[in-house]
Amino acid sequence: xxxxxxxxxxxxxxxxxxxxAVPVLRRLxxxxxxxxxxxxxxxxxxxxRFGNARxxxxxxxxxxxxxxxxxxxxxxxGFALIHNRAHFAGAGTHEINEFFVLRKYxxxxxxxxxxxxxxxxxxxPWEIAELxxxxxxxAFWREGIAGYTRGAFQDTERTDGDWRxxxxxxxxxxxGSR
Length: 178
Known about the structure:
It contains four helices and seven strands. It has helices at about 20-40, 60, 110-120, 135-150, and strands at about 10-15, 65-70, 75-85, 90-100, 125-130, 155-160, 165-170. The N and C termini lie close together (about 10 Å).
């Protein structure tokens, strides 16, 4: 994730999203869920929405959860929801619960830069998990984490109840250490 290509966008920022951001995050969540739904063939609900976006409020109510908007310049480009209690590794390990970049900004370095900024903001152990069916996300995270850590990460297949997928574990040194 350290190398910058000629097509990469240089002004990617993360802005903390507070409780007032719920309406915007809910709308972005529908785009995110639509993308996931096309992978797994989900049907849309009778009310015209995908999934239950109400659960995002826990990112302002529950301790250890944080939410960020991804911006390219002044333009909203996506979001990242993180938690400091990873599903498999437990408390003290940061986890990206949801990560979304609008299609307009994909394959231009926006997601990679946003991820690096998150990792640098929260040094220590991290865990990233992707559904088995989301091979695009698996490739993105494997390549990005390999670059960020210079190959010092674990990549394993995991199963937990109905959930099956890939999990990458690594340690983020922080912004001053790389």
